[in-house]
Amino acid sequence: MRPTEGHPPANERNEQRRRDEHLSPAPTYHTAPAMWSMCAQAIGATTVMMERFDAQQALDAIQRYGVTHAQFVPTMFVRMLRLPDSTRMGFDLSTLRRVVHAAAPCPPDIKRQMIDWWGPIVDEYYGSSEGAGISFIRAEDWLKRPGSVGKPMLGTPHILDEHGNELGPGEVGEIYYEGGYPFEYLNDKAKTSSATSAEGWVTVGDVGYVDDDGYLFLTDRRHNMIISGGVNIYPQEAEHVLISHPLVVDAAVFGIPDDELGQSVKAVVELVDPSNAGDEVASTLMFWVQGRLAKYKCPRSISFEERLPRTDAGKLYKQVLIEKYSVKAC
Question: In the record, what terms sit under GO molecular function (predicted)?
Answer without folding.
Answer: CoA-ligase activity
